[in-house]
UniProtKB/TrEMBL annotation:
Record keywords: Oxidoreductase, Transferase, tRNA processing
EC number: 1.14.-.-
UniProt catalytic activity: uridine(34) in tRNA + AH2 + O2 = 5-hydroxyuridine(34) in tRNA + A + H2O
Family: Belongs to the TrhO family.
Domain Rhodanese as annotated: residue spans: 123-217
General function of this protein: Catalyzes oxygen-dependent 5-hydroxyuridine (ho5U) modification at position 34 in tRNAs.
InterPro entries, A to Z: Rhodanese-like_dom (IPR001763), Rhodanese-like_dom_sf (IPR036873), TrhO (IPR020936), TRHO_N (IPR040503)
Protein name: tRNA uridine(34) hydroxylase
Organism: Parvularcula marina
Length: 307
């Protein structure tokens, strides 16, 4: 097993003095050569980090030392190589951006369903299962029978849900996302709209893939992750997808064989989205990445490091 531990974490809790906490966490990450991104906001902390066992434990201890974060839970997987290039601690307005004032999982949140109980919930014909992730994530894998809201951004979810709710009044709703954080906000939003029978998958898809045997699984495909691994499958094993460095969407071998695919510049999904000037910029960035690789160096413009 690789010695690189990848830890995904989040915790909703009121936080103040963010700049001081930012400095502390940045120092701990640097001291232990842990890379990745941690977000701090008045509503809590969110991040994915990677490093050796000792380093990850040190950073997790520092995060749990933040006010109200002693109960923080995290999810672990492994990588063959470091999936991040830098260590970043950023200050944000929200740790997951929905853009709706007043929505707070600290105040109210949907009921949690353990991964081991999820199959029973989503097999209920009276339950509507909603994938709260963005369309490009859903495209490579989701649960049997789940609704894809086809959103481009989590900011689009509230408007979609309002329309869904008007067309499906009184339905029991079960939501899920990658690691659980988006469902905290989406179920809080549903409750704010008066929907009381709302549940979500505790720990998200990653915890489900870690704990539920493939033979018993209702998951289909792979799960997109926001680091250099791109996707994972059952048991959190490395997936088969690569990533377009232009649009950051997952791509498979068939897409890479398409004439529209140029490494770092375009793929069939984004060929019409960028003008020639933008693609020239992508091409220059790819050239610099290739030169850095040839010298055995990491290039800070590598898209897997952008978050």
């Amino acid at each position: 097993m690789s010695h690189i531990v990848v830890a995904a974490l989040y915790h909703f809790t009121p936080l103040e003095d963010l700049a001081r906490h930012q400095e502390t966490l940045q120092s701990v990450m640097a001291a232990h050569e842990v890379k990745g991104t941690i977000l701090l906001a008045p509503e809590g902390v969110n991040g994915t980090i990677a490093g050796d066992r000792e380093g990850i434990d040190a950073v997790l201890a520092a995060v749990r030392a933040l006010p109200g974060c002693a109960g923080l839970e995290h999810k672990e997987s492994h990588a063959e190589s470091q999936p991040f290039l830098r260590a970043k601690v950023r200050l944000k307005k929200e740790i997951v951006t929905m853009g709706v004032p007043g929505i707070s999982p600290i105040k109210q949140v949907g009921s949690y369903v353990a991964p081991e109980d999820w199959n029973e919930v989503i097999s209920d014909p009276d339950t509507v299962v909603i994938d709260t992730r963005n369309d490009y994530e859903v495209g490579i894998g989701t649960f049997e029978g789940a609704i894809n809201p086809q959103t481009e951004s989590f900011r689009d979810f509230p408007a979609w849900y309002d329309k869904f709710r008007a067309e499906n009044p009184g339905k029991r709703v079960a939501m899920f996302c990658t690691g659980g954080i988006r469902c905290e906000k989406s179920t809080a939003y549903a409750l704010s709209k008066g929907d009381n029978d709302v549940v979500h998958l505790k720990g998200g898809i990653l915890k489900y893939l870690e704990h539920v045997p493939e033979a018993d699984s209702k998951w289909q495909g792979e799960c997109f992750v926001f680091d250099g691994r791109v996707s994972v499958g059952h048991g959190l094993e490395l997936g088969t997808y690569d990533q377009c460095f232009a649009c950051r969407r997952p791509i498979d071998d068939e897409m890479k064989a398409d004439p529209a695919y140029v490494e770092g510049v375009s793929c069939p999904q984004c060929i019409e989205e960028y003008d020639e000037e933008k693609r020239k910029g992508f091409a220059e960035r790819q050239k610099q990445i290739a030169l850095s690789r040839a010298r055995g160096e990491a290039h800070l413009g590598t898209p897997s490091d952008k978050s």
